[in-house]
Design a protein that fits this description.
The protein contains 16 helices and 17 strands. It is an alpha+beta fold. It has one domain (about 5-475): Amidase signature (AS) domain (Amidase signature (AS) enzymes), CATH 3.90.1300. Helix 6 (about 160-165) packs parallel to helix 7 (about 185-190), helix 8 runs antiparallel to helix 16 and helix 11 (about 310-325) crosses helix 13. It is globular, with a radius of gyration of 21 Å. It starts with a helix and ends in a 12-residue tail after the last helix. The model has no long low-confidence stretch (mean pLDDT about 95).
Length: about 475
């Protein structure tokens, strides 16, 4: 088996091959490092590469297998980790120049569980400063590109490096984070799977009271995303809102899954988005496929939700303002070179009064949940486009696409997150899967949203859709 074949193996298959001594952990790591060296000049997805550490870990993993030791479900399988996630002893910059030499002393819960299951860290992937942009562009690392149109088009964000790496064959698993679309948007831009689980499913010990932010997987197939959720789900005392470990296995839910018998709601725009005509047509074809080949019942629905752009600014603006006061080795974060959009949102947040913020957090958020419950009360799942557009040329100071269907976009910085923001703030699990390509060769994402805690159902439906299509088998031109 060639190194190229190893690099593109699904993670669950690679894990099995390693356990069965068909492929060694060292062979897997070498194959991934070779792939990284080949594609990184095109995508710019890494802040740091932990090659020596990875090879050392691979040799130790290989020895354990040869000795017949008990090993974890991810033993010897390479993974990349977003540079917002703390990794003990490995530089973690949070996408910021003043933290370029920062080395945490502890592992975040999710990464600690992945490591305990045997995953081997290949490197830390790019992110904008503290994940505060929908694109992956920072003064520290520059722009990260989708491998489908590198180096001219964005990978999305803020888990842009994670999405671009896994889409390029650099490790079967990537670990990212999502607070409004930061896993799903870059996954859609890069044509891979991105899972936002129910808040609390994976503990967030560094944000113990947050009910929107999650960490989670980006992979090239749905089963691999479910496998990583299996490994990382479960409570932690440091995260009071974390959920009990489920009795059913998420990976098992994806095996042999079908769409038959499901009643699925379809919203082409979540009630407010201007969706690119070509994207809309591809998503409609995907929904028809779910109905005709998957034997699901699909009902078009109309939805009424608060404006997600206004809500994003009101709910996250104060947090952006606080972030500018984060201490750094040379002052505070706001003293440094930041994307102008970050400052715009922070300025609005600083001017927001307490009553306005409280209204967004309570009244408006309740309206968001009510809008979804009105549909999910009578349907098993809801499907939408993941984004109103595909990956777009690197935008510069606007931080987003400026036009859709020839019409100007009022808020480029947030508009392409319109479809992912609302389900986040309703506390719902959601996944994006590739559902086709435009004439220009850019991938289009289909978002599947489930009721609260229905992570297994969302994964099963995504796996079933994947099984009746072949979009996830394509490789980008740079690969």
């Amino acid at each position: 088996m060639s190194n190229n074949d190893i690099a593109w193996m699904p993670g669950h298959e690679l894990a099995k091959a390693i356990r069965n001594k068909v492929i060694s952990p060292t062979e897997a790591v070498v194959a991934i490092l070779e792939q990284l060296e080949r594609v990184e000049p095109h995508i710019n997805a890494f802040v740091s590469v932990t090659a020596e550490q990875a090879l050392e870990s691979a040799r130790a993993a290989e020895q354990r297998i040869m000795q017949g030791d008990s090993v974890g479900r991810l033993h010897g399988v390479p993974i990349t980790v977003k540079d917002l996630v703390d990794t003990a002893g490995v530089t973690t910059t949070y996408g910021c120049v003043p933290f370029k030499d920062h080395v945490p002393s502890h592992d975040s819960v999710g990464w600690a569980r992945l490591k305990a299951a045997g995953a081997i860290l290949i490197g830390k992937t790019t992110t904008p400063e503290f994940g505060m942009l929908g694109i992956t562009d920072s003064a520290l690392t520059g722009k990260t590109s989708t491998p489908w149109a590198a180096p001219t088009h964005t990978s999305g964000g803020s888990s842009g490096g994670a999405a671009a790496s896994v889409a390029s064959g650099v490790a079967p698993f990537a670990w990212g984070s999502d607070g409004g679309g930061s896993i799903r948007v870059p996954a859609a831009c890069c044509g891979v799977v991105g899972l936002k689980s129910t808040p609390g499913r994976i503990p967030m010990e560094d944000a113990p009271w947050d009910t929107t932010l999650v960490v989670g997987p980006l992979t090239r197939n749905v089963r691999d995303a479910a496998l990583l959720l299996d490994v990382t789900a479960g409570p932690d005392a440091r995260a009071p809102l974390s959920l009990p470990k489920p009795t059913e296995g998420f990976e098992q839910a994806t095996i042999g899954a079908t769409l038959g018998g499901l009643r699925i709601a379809f919203s082409p725009d979540l009630g407010s988005a201007e969706v690119d005509n070509e994207v809309a047509a591809i998503v409609r074809d995907a929904v028809h496929c779910m109905e005709s080949m998957g034997r699901a019942r699909v009902d078009p629905v109309e939805m009424t939700l608060p404006n997600p752009v206004d809500y994003f600014k009101d709910i996250y603006g104060p947090g952006f303002a606080m972030a500018l006061q984060i201490p750094t080795p040379t002052g505070v974060l706001g003293d440094h070179d930041l994307h102008p959009v970050i400052r715009q949102i922070a300025d609005r947040g600083a001017a927001l009064n307490v009553l306005e913020y409280a209204r967004a957090e309570t009244t408006v958020r309740a309206q968001i949940l009510d809008g979804f419950l009105a549909v999910l009360g009578s349907h098993d799942l809801l499907v939408t486009p993941t984004m109103p557009v595909t990956a777009f040329p690197h935008p510069g100071p606007e931080a987003g696409n400026t036009h859709v269907n020839g019409k100007p976009v009022s808020d480029p910085m947030v508009d392409f997150h319109r479809m992912t923001e609302s389900p986040t703030h309703a506390g719902l699990p959601a996944i994006t899967v590739n559902c086709g390509f435009t004439a220009a060769g850019l991938p289009v994402g289909l978002q599947i949203i489930g009721p609260q805690h229905a992570d297994a159902a969302v994964l099963a439906a995504a796996a079933a859709f994947e099984s009746i299509t072949d979009w996830n088998g394509r490789r980008p031109p740079i690969a």
